[in-house]
Amino acid sequence: MTLKIYLSGEIHTDWREQIIEGAVGLDVSFSSPVTDHGASDDCGVAILGAEPDKYWHDHKGAMINAIRTRKGISDADVVVVRFGEQYKQWNAAFDAGYAAALGKSLIILQRPEHDHPLKEVDAAALAVAREPSQVVDILRYVLDSTLPE
């Protein structure tokens, strides 16, 4: 059973790489949003033309990025959403809600101090993990019925 995993959320740490490296040997494939912050922010104006108004600059980029995000979440068996500590992750919360609305298996990856602000998001998830290694352990258990040592 191959699992398609979509890795959503903050782009400022290496949590995606930790999960991908930890999952070597498991029957999984990964996809994610564009994690190059500059490319993600500027894709709309680079493709559709410059905007003097920052709102429309950001809006164009968000719409184009949404094409990839919707496809990735729609195709996924499991959606992992990471909430980072440095920034408010409105896009991550939206992705979690979209995945939940589609009935996707949802794993939230967050620090304990986010438990209260994310209680509604967490309630829609099937697991709330603290570390990328716990996400890998969940995937291993789901695929191989193997518990961590």
Automatic annotation (TrEMBL):
InterPro entries noted in UniProt: YtoQ_family_protein
Q: Name one Pfam family in it.
A: Nuc_deoxyri_tr3
NCBIfam families for this protein: YtoQ_fam (TIGR03646)
Q: In its UniProt entry, what is this protein called?
A: YtoQ family protein
Which species does this protein come from? Roseovarius aestuarii
Taxonomic lineage of the native organism: Bacteria, Pseudomonadati, Pseudomonadota, Alphaproteobacteria, Rhodobacterales
